[in-house]
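Handout, section 4.2: multi-component inputs.
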Amino acid sequence: MVLYSWKFWAIFLLLVFLILTLGYPIVSILSLSFRNGFDIFWNTVLTDSYYLDVLMFTTWQATASTLLTLLIGLPSAYVFAHYSFPGKRTLRGLTTVPFVMPPLVIALGFVALLGDKGLINSLLQTTFRLNTPPLMLINTIYAILIAHVMYEFTIVVRIVSTAWANLDPDIENAARILGANRWNAFRKITLPLLLPSIIAASSLIFAFTFTSFGVVLILGGAQYATLEVSIYTLAAHLFQLPAAGVLALIQMAITIVFMTVYARYQQRTSTSFNLVPNQAVTMTPQGKIDKLLCLANYLIVLIVLSPLIALIVRALLSNGDITVSGFTHIFSNQGDSFFFVSPLQAITNSLLFGACTVILAVPMGIISGFLLGNSTHWGKAFLDSALMLPLGISAVTMGFGFLIAFNNGIWNLSGSWTIIVMAHAVIAYPFVLRSILPVLRSMPPSLREAAQVLGASKRRIFIRIDLPILWRSIVVGLVFAFAVSLGEFGATLLLHRPEHTTMPVAIFRYLSQPGESNLLQALSMSCVLMFVSAAGFITIERLRFRNLGGF
Amino acid sequence: MVKRLYILIILLLVGVMPLACTAKDTLPGPEVLTILTHDSFDIGANVIAEFEAEFNSSVSIVKGGDAGEVINKSILTKGNPIADLLYGIDNTFLTRALEENIFMPYRSPLLDNIPPDYHLDPDHHVMPVNIGFVAINYDSEWLSAAGLVTPKYLLDLTEPEWTGLLVVQNPATSSPGLAFLYSTISKFGETGSYTYLDYWQDLKENDVLVKNGWSDSYYGDFSLHGGNRPLIVSYSTSPAAEVFYSEGAHTTPPSGVITSAGSAFMQIEGIGILRGTSHEKLAKQFVDFAMDTTFQEDFPNRMWVFPVNKLAVTSGVFADFAENPAIPARLSSQSIALNRDRWIKEWTEIVIR
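Output:
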């Protein structure tokens, strides 16, 4: 007889992996930060009102970004869930492209689109014969918020539309027949059933923007700082590890509190209901309103992608002339540099790291999903937030933590790509977890019970019941895991060798030198990154496994 | 089925990874020398190949962020270093690294070819390899189109005609930003009727824009590349690099540099052997190699910094257009180590908060 079940070993492995890649580095760096005691806690950080302002700003911008993203993302999620229209899969693939772009590239896209000489201001100036550029968004708080919406839009679209597409329209129809108007039926029936997935998306967005680093560092100018930016400044440049450690702890604590509340709320709003395959929900647009909605959705996605489109235009224009020199140059090693890496090599590296990340992160997400299950315990809510911790932990702190924790005889830090993949996987799996949890919790237990009564083994239930229903949300999680790796979140703070150069690292290499040709090459490489990630996301969406994917 | 496969894969990965990482070191073959450096470092592949052939070795170069981050990482891993050598420690970070005692002393015989002015450490923990100057760059075409005369002195920038035209980097997050703060301290001092803080107060009232990094300010805010500010803190060699990377569009620099006495800050970069290395001899050979002419003559047209070896001859666009300020601003490493945190704090209070 087997002593322990598969489930036991899966959870055991997950915990071992998390302790190794998350707990150990964090404890290492924090114990180093506080080796001289906790005096710093009271002396510098907590008594300095500046950090209180930073905390207020961090919370404020995260809340604003989350609400704005929901406002723009929910209508789009509705259209994606309810209509089948030409280019739907491509369009949904494209929404995730901004998610992988380095903030520096997004900043350049903003300048190309909204700068004084950008596309929009030039257009407005010539159309209305204005002397000064009418839009002044660069280096303001609006730039930060818009960038956050661009990044997180895809989270709402993917997570909420997946749930919406499985929602039996008969429930709302019944309410309509019983006399509820459209708004009331939505408010009283559809919204409560959607709430778990909206909460899932919001908690991801909030965690991501609360710890926002690159966007705030680059797009807002030096007057705006989040906790994470302060941690980076203190740890990486001012050599004040203890103060950085205090802020990292505060950030972690706040994230845990927020995440516990979110998780608790999600538990309470989850109800099991009859999930239907999405073929039953989606329809081809027929009436005028349907077509208008689809058209509006194209427009929303176009607006979200507009800075990237401006970048493509900029990559092909140099001093007013059309050029492809940026694209041809990235393929040749001009000047025979030691650090040159061909785009093909960079693409291969990025895809390889992405694939390894997915292989690690997807089972981790599924296992943690089953670990949390349907329970409505406070304890489980806390466990839930603990499992989401990678999103709340300061990436800067993690970077240094990895350095100290794995700098020993066993791991060769400077030479190993496995560390990079592990760092990616740890940040990526919460996305898988958040994607599947709402679906997992709305699955009626009667389905599994029926199978059990009919004599199916646990494994058979998993393969025949759980997996088909979860498949679409697993794919959503898979897309995000892949995207996290392609975008190199946080991992750029680790060490890298030329032979491990990925697309984002190649972009940074060009942008560290002055000159038009460097800019063109960086933008061309960014276009390559856009194209490869879009192709990747669209391919992943087509993934089918036996009869899976019908849901 | 699927799950079992996944679990098998995790098991394999978790089990095999540490082995895979160590396998590299135990393989027989040429001795591997690992060099840690900052993201801006660049060198010719042929130069490294020459070293590898001459000393029957293999050189691995690891990048770990900007200059400050790299030093931080070396300090964190002190005694059990992630590399054998550190390339790119400059005079602004030197004392910090010396206090932490991360380098082992080595006096290269080639130091005799380097002017004493550039020597970094009397105890030879670090050997000088290159110098650079952080200075204000201006977009020449923008200025002439606006009918403005090119500025000559730092003090000019507080005049009303330069309102809203300058972008600098945050000294708390950027190495050129910090160097520019140092040049204002060196120029205006901390005491007297007009201190460096008065100068920054005036710059602030003149609507100076502060960004966190060089790349985002140079490509995002500098008018030469689509931004709206014609004045920026960059390097004295940036205009030369603009010619080199212009695809033939420019035969002379499209931008200029303020090089008047005491306005450009000199950064001396060095190379040091990290304590705890197991390749001491090879590391010393590389230090010599980096100070010799082959290496010194290769990097000016790719890293845009000056060689320190008197015998090194620069060539091409670098030789034609790289600006070498006659009287640069300088601060002693000791004074920087002593006051750095306070200066940044005072600057932050005045300019950002």
